[in-house]
Write a structure and sequence with these properties.
This protein is α/β, with parallel strands linked by helices. It has two domains: about 220 residues, 3-Layer(aba) Sandwich (Rossmann fold), CATH 3.40.50.620; about 50 residues, no CATH class. The chain is built from eleven helices and six strands. A six-stranded mixed beta sheet has the order 3-2-1-4-6-5, sandwiched between helices. The radius of gyration is 23 Å and the shape is globular. The termini are far apart.
Length: about 300
């Protein structure tokens, strides 16, 4: 009897794993497709250069885009780029072996940014800013050489929200990561197709797919990063108040300039002198009643106004 149960479990577990993988993959593809549509990230004939770091997020991005391309109503190209930054013990054969199996064009670019960062940044100081600038310069150069019209990065929903809070707490700015942006020189379009995807889903997807993760021994080994502190704070909030991360993220797409303090976004000086331009959302927030059908977001805004 015990043997029969054991055989049954061995049969059911792979089936359950396959079911969970397919269900998760379907959701991730839907979220990525929606982000691409909402922000018009990819068009016909685009050559999308996917930056593959060796982490779970970029692995997930690449495989999801490959899957979407098979069923997309438009034709676009995908090429992968991996930057070998010269980290000690870097496993040089892992990514080429993985990419060969996917049968897509790719390029591995070696630039010893690790040595530059270690030489210029004092021990104990955060390396992310310099490392990011050096990496971005290489990415833009390679994009020009490959003729890429889009540069796809693996930043997800949690990255965007963490960046927003980092700017809020430490830089005094309301600023996050845009899903689509143009480089300062106007020559490159950067896209973040994972903008709607939760990090936890990407972690689960990576586990189910068995991606050959390459850890970062430079920035990934630092325990003094402000981003790690913000991530821990968000995790604690989500445990205590499930759904809070989703609510906070949604607020980034529901901005009311008249309820902030940026004079370049709203004509505060004209108030009283002439009727200012109000959006429908501004009017809705100001006039929202505390009745049935009024959203919690409106309640919160009205409550804040009434405390003044």
């Amino acid at each position: 009897m015990a043997v029969a149960v054991s055989i049954c479990e061995q049969t059911v577990r792979p089936q359950k794993r396959t079911y969970e993988s397919n269900k998760l993959q379907k959701r991730l593809r839907a979220q990525v497709a929606q982000a691409i549509l909402d922000f018009e990230m990819i068009g016909p004939g685009d050559r999308v250069m996917v930056c593959l770091s060796g982490g779970k997020d970029s692995y997930g991005l690449l495989e999801i885009l490959i899957g979407l391309r098979r069923h997309a109503p438009i034709d676009f190209e995908i090429i992968a780029l991996h930057l070998d930054q010269g980290h000690p013990g870097y496993p040089a054969k892992v990514l080429p072996s993985y990419l060969d199996k996917l049968a897509i064009p790719y390029r591995v670019e070696r630039q010893d940014t690790h040595r530059v960062v270690k030489r210029l940044i004092p021990e104990g100081k955060t390396m992310c800013s310099l490392c990011s600038r050096l990496r971005r310069g290489v990415i833009y150069r390679v994009a020009r050489e490959l003729g890429a019209t889009r540069i796809a990065l693996g930043h997800h929903r949690d990255d965007i929200l963490e960046t927003f809070l980092l700017n809020l707490f430490f830089a005094g700015k309301l600023k996050a990561m845009p899903p689509k942006l143009m480089s300062d020189d106007g020559k490159h379009i950067v896209i973040r197709p994972l903008a709607y995807v939760a990090e936890a889903d990407l972690a689960r997807y990576a586990q189910l797919k068995g991606f050959p993760i390459i850890p970062c021994d430079l920035c990934g080994s630092q325990d003094n990063l402000q981003r790690l502190q913000v991530k821990a704070m968000l995790g604690e909030w989500e445990r205590k108040f499930p759904g809070r991360i989703e609510t906070m993220f949604n607020s980034l797409a529901r901005v009311e300039p008249s309820h902030l303090l940026d004079r370049s976004l709203f004509g505060f000086a004209s108030l009283g002198a002439a009727k200012p331009h109000l959006t429908a959302a501004d009017i809705a927030v100001d006039s929202a009643p505390f009745g049935e059908g009024a959203s919690p977001l409106r309640h919160a805004n009205v409550a804040c106004d009434n405390r003044q």
